[in-house]
Design goal:
The chain has about 200 residues and is an alpha+beta fold. The protein is built from three helices and nine strands; from the N terminus they run αααβββββββββ. The strands form two sheets. It has a five-stranded antiparallel beta sheet, with no helix packed on it. It starts with a helix and ends with a strand.
């Protein structure tokens, strides 16, 4: 039976729209943005800032990541750092101890290297570095940090951790102290010394 004329016209009219829709490029639906809480957004920005600080350092800034003392020592020696030889004092902790201390005033960083300093039991005693500064009263040298020697007979590298800014160092001294160190040393036991030549 032939197609009625009015139905044919409607099909042809609809076909124009159907064919046009089929020819149009298909695009993936855009995801609906989720609303984040301000706390999560802030945490994201802080994490990004922290990562940027680890990967990039401005001039004069020290890295936030911990650097091996041996690597730091080599880096400091390539700059204007001073290098001073340790002198043993005859103390039982290292009667023949040797090594050196490398210090950079510009970077406020340094590394001590020891050989022959006795291994210590941290529960009995620890070593403590003192930095004598020309700008300060010699009765109160700057605490350079407490450290341990784990094994005898090999080079030991220790990063210096000054509690105050060092302006003009004149002497570095390592003392034997009670566990945890002291605020003011009696200097009864000085293991090694390194003097800055004036």
């Amino acid at each position: 039976e032939p197609l009625p004329a009015d139905l044919r016209l409607r099909i042809e009219a609809d076909a124009v729209h159907v064919l046009a829709a089929q020819r149009a490029p298909r695009t993936a639906p855009r995801p609906t943005p989720r609303r984040r809480s301000r706390g999560l957004a802030l945490a994201g920005w802080l994490a990004a800032a922290g990562l940027a600080a680890l990967l990039w350092l401005g001039p004069g800034l020290e890295p936030l990541v911990e650097v091996e003392p041996e690597m730091l020592r080599a880096d400091l020696l390539a700059t204007d750092a001073i290098s001073l030889a340790w002198q043993a004092t005859g103390d039982a902790a290292g009667p023949e101890a040797s090594g050196d201390v490398v210090w950079s005033n510009a970077r406020q960083a340094g590394v001590m290297r020891f050989r022959g300093l006795a291994a210590n039991d941290p529960g009995v005693y620890q070593y403590q570095l003192w930095i004598f500064d020309e700008a300060r009263d010699e009765r109160y040298p700057i605490d350079g940090g407490v450290f341990d020697v784990v094994r005898d007979g090999e080079d030991v590298f220790v990063a210096i951790d000054p509690r105050l800014p060092v302006r003009s160092p004149t002497l570095f001294a390592v003392t034997v102290e009670k566990p945890g160190g002291v605020v003011v040393s009696s200097r009864e036991r000085i293991a090694v010394l390194a003097s800055v030549e004036s």
